[in-house]
Design brief:
37% of the residues lie in helices and 20% in strands. 45% of the residues are buried. The protein is α/β, with parallel strands linked by helices. It folds into two domains: 64 residues, Orthogonal Bundle (DNA polymerase, domain 1); 275 residues, Alpha-Beta Barrel (TIM Barrel), CATH 3.20.20. The structure holds S-adenosyl-L-homocysteine. S-adenosyl-L-homocysteine binds next to β10 and β12.
Length: 346
């Protein structure tokens, strides 16, 4: 493991970059395609790459390692959800969640170890940011989860720990890696990225990846309330965020999803619902209401079922598309960031 700190994670490399690696080792370019294909299959050892010459495998292993994370803890829910705590070569730990839906299997991956956005209801941000992940480490979570569950994974949501737009280069590397035809070949429309609202990156994302789904964590119907739970709102204010989101839908023609964690006595009133509805009326959006996952050490309580239903009804009657997020894996601590913290508390 320590030696890996001096080696490069080969999962970070796109096919054209692997070609450079391979030709510098004096080998033919097509070996890069073979190598990339093996990596996407989730092999953990260069020696498993049967059609790659042994001498090349040895030389690769001298300078590179395959950065599949190690499984530290695995929890399986009755509903098929698998939550995993993964560890990278340097001891950094993140969590990923595998979920079964009617439309297929999905994984929620982390983009950073911890987070520096400071949302006051979120567990991932309690210890700040430890480090960002690389694109290959994001891919590694998908491959390791597929190895672990033995199930194909056709949807990826970047909604685990971290703020993906605070790690934009690595995020875009990940999207290109997993979309690559010669590798995992995941459709762009099967990827969703969730942001707390970093406006410049929303603009950039609309241009770079118009086919990838975007979710924006809103959690409030106005600036004043949003500022109370999301420090990021002080930097990027509500009206500017909504403007950027409208521009996003105009530019891409894609529906935007707004996430709204419903918190008892904070943002769950009928007045909040009406204000949100009037702000969203008539444009291409979808609101995902998430009954708050209560986090140890945070004072917030989840809104009761009745106020969530009333909130939903108000949005619906204004013609705003809305769903209440299905709670998967609630028996295994589904709340964001909780698995990692739980282990730290043991
Ligand atoms: N940083 C990104 C993605 C990570 S969090 C973002 O902010 O969108 C994924 C979603 O879970 C976000 O909407 C986030 O606000 C929400 N979330 C965080 N803690 C939560 C909690 N305790 N209960 C419910 N949702 C929570």
């Amino acid at each position: 493991m320590e030696t890996e700190a001096r080696k490069e994670n080969i999962l970070n490399y796109l096919p054209e970059e692997l070609e450079t690696v391979i030709t510098e080792l004096g080998e033919k370019k097509f070996r890069a395609t073979q190598l990339f294909g093996w990596l996407a299959k989730g092999v953990s050892d260069f020696d498993d790459m049967k059609n790659v010459p042994a001498a090349l495998r040895t030389r690769l292993a001298e300078s590179y390692y395959i950065g599949l994370p190690e499984v530290v803890r695995k929890q399986q829910s009755k509903d098929g959800t698998v939550k995993c705590l993964f560890r990278f070569y340097d001891g950094a730990e993140v969590e990923s969640v595998f979920m079964k839906y009617e439309y297929g299997n999905s994984i929620c991956i982390s983009s950073q170890v911890g987070c520096r956005m400071g949302c006051t209801f979120c567990a991932s941000t309690m210890d700040g940011l430890e480090r960002s992940l690389t694109g290959g480490e994001m891919l590694g979570q998908v491959l390791a989860m597929r190895n672990l569950t033995g199930e194909e994974i056709g949807h990826v949501v970047v909604m685990g720990m971290g703020e993906p737009f605070d790690n934009y280069e690595a995020l875009s590397g990940f999207i290109r890696l997993i979309h690559e035809k010669k590798g995992y070949d995941l459709g762009l429309r099967n990827i969703t990225v969730s942001t707390c609202g970093l406006i410049p990156m929303i603009r950039r994302f609309a241009i770079d990846f118009p086919q990838v789904n975007l979710a924006v964590s809103l959690h409030a119907p106005n600036q004043e309330l949003r500022e109370r739970t999301m420090p990021v709102a002080r930097k990027y204010n509500y009206d500017d965020l909504m403007k950027a989101c409208r521009e996003y839908t105009e530019l891409t023609g894609r529906r935007i999803t707004f996430e709204y964690a419903v918190i008892d006595g904070v943002n769950d009133s009928a007045a909040c619902a009406r204000e949100l509805a009037s702000g969203l009326k008539g444009w291409l959006t979808h609101v995902n209401l998430i009954p708050l996952n209560e986090v140890k050490g945070r004072e917030y309580k989840t809104a009761n079922g009745r106020s969530v239903a009333a909130f939903k009804q108000i949005l619906e009657s204004s013609g705003v598309a809305v769903t209440v997020r299905r709670t998967l894996g609630s028996d295994i601590d589904a709340a964001c960031g909780q698995l990692r913290r739980k282990k730290q508390c043991d």
